[in-house]
Design goal:
Layout (H helix, E strand, L loop, with lengths): L5 E4 L9 H14 L6 H19 L3 H15 L6 H15 L9 H9 L3 E7 L2 H11 L7 E5 L4 H10 L7 E5 L2 H10 L3 E4 L20 E2 L11
Parallel strand pairs: 1-2, 1-4, 2-3, 4-5, 5-6
Helix pairs in contact: 1-4, 2-3, 3-4
Length: about 230
């Protein structure tokens, strides 16, 4: 770890709570459509629609909202009412206006590490929403770089490191998703710290990874101990 010069953090569910908000909204969506189908079937169809739409709408609240509307139209065979569509749009507005709730130990950890390392945010999602959350988090001043991307894979991380002239051996990524934050970073020869969040979106689940290559922590407050 003595070679690490830049520490990058995922944002959602690494620095602040996010997945809980999507889960709560999905519950509201299932309640809205409960008169048409079972909650389990609604949830399954919504996930399948989200997966299909990622290529078109990307990650984030806006894409999630469009998937809810499409699912509602499909599951009701077009019988969904205008006021019910409006309720789904209101769900999205509620999500966008929720306060940013930092995870425990985040603020003190970021402040401490900023005194010895260059810090970066690398996150997926809607540009407007992610920029707004970073600004509202109170942490923006501690990050010298922010990268908001449409996906996280080996090519994206290599492009970011090349852009900022960072050698892989000098780079550490911290995140809650094995699929997006950890495995691609390890694959390009950099280091990564996995901090699981208590709720994980099914899309981010992976199987068959080599756990021996992981540095795993229970919470972000343990991160400074590495250095």
């Amino acid at each position: 770890m003595k070679e690490i010069r830049c520490i990058a953090f995922d944002a959602d569910d690494t620095l602040w709570h996010n997945e809980e908000l999507f889960c709560q909204t999905e519950e509201r969506f299932k309640q809205l459509l409960a008169k048409y189908h079972s909650r389990e079937w609604i949830s399954q169809q919504l996930y399948e629609t989200e997966e299909k739409n990622l290529l078109h709408f990307g990650y984030g609240i806006k894409g999630f909202t469009l998937s809810m509307i499409e699912t509602a139209i499909q599951l009701t065979e077009g019988r969904i009412q205008g006021e019910e569509i409006q309720q789904i749009i209101d769900f999205a507005r509620d999500m966008l206006h929720q306060p940013v709730r930092l995870l425990q130990h985040v603020e003190e950890t970021v402040v401490r590490l900023s005194q010895s390392h260059n810090l970066m945010v690398i996150t997926k999602g809607d540009l407007f929403d992610q920029e707004a959350k970073i600004a509202r988090s109170g942490l923006a001043e501690y990050f010298c770089r922010v990268e908001i991307v449409t996906k996280k894979d080996e090519a994206v991380y290599q492009k970011i490191l090349h852009k900022h002239e960072i050698a892989p051996r000098h780079f550490l990524m911290v995140g809650n998703s094995l699929k997006s934050d950890i495995l691609p970073v390890l694959a390009i020869g950099a280091r990564a710290v996995y901090i699981p969040y208590h709720t994980t979106w099914e899309h981010e689940a992976v199987e068959g990874h080599d756990a021996r290559k992981l540095i795993e922590m229970k919470h972000i407050g343990r991160l400074p101990e590495l250095f």
